[in-house]
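[User]
Protein folding is very new to me. Any chance you could explain this protein sequence and its C-alpha cells? I have pasted everything here:
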Amino acid sequence: MFFHQGAPALGDGALRTDRDLQALRTAAAHLSPAGQLQVATALDMLAGLEDRLDVVRHRLLDAARSLTGARVLAARLYGVGPVTGLALTCWLGGAGRFSSARKAVRFCGLDITVYSSDGKRSPGHLSRQGPPVLRWCAYEAGKTHARNGAPDHDYYASVKDRKDGKRAALAEARKIVRQACHILTELGDDAFAMV
C-alpha cells in the first residue's frame, strides 16, 4: 500500500518498537484517506492484541508460579523458565504418562526420522509431531546452553563444532525433555498440585 501510493519505505521489521510505530504513523500521512484509515485500523488492532497478550502472559506466569511441576522444573533444569516449565508439565506430566523418556522426546517431535523404503524423504530430519509450542519451548531452553556459564556448555560447544548451533540446541532440547520426563515421573500426579 505504501509503495503504490508513493509513501516512503518503512524497511524490514517496521513494527517492532514504539519508534517504528511512530514512523509508520508519520508515513501514513502521505497516504490517501482510505489508506490512512487502513493503517489506523491496523494500529488499533495491534494495540488491542497487545493488551490481550499482556493478560494472557500474566495468567501463564501466575499459573507457572503456582504449579508444583513447573516450579520444580524451572528450579532444577538450566534454561527452563516458568513458561517452559509450565509447557513441559502440562504436556509431559502425570503418573505413567510415558513409559520411557525416549517416548516423551518422540511426543515432542524432537526425534530424528529414519530412512524407510516407502518414503522419499532423506534421513536426519525432525519428525515434528506433537505440539509445536512444546517443541519451540524445549528448543529455546536448549539454546541457553550456548552461554559460557551453562552447566552443559562443553557438550553444546562440541556438537556445534562438529555440526552447527541448531543441531547443538536440538541435542540439548532432547536432553532437557528427557530430564523433565524423569523429574515429572518422580513427582507423579503431585506435579499438578497448586501451591
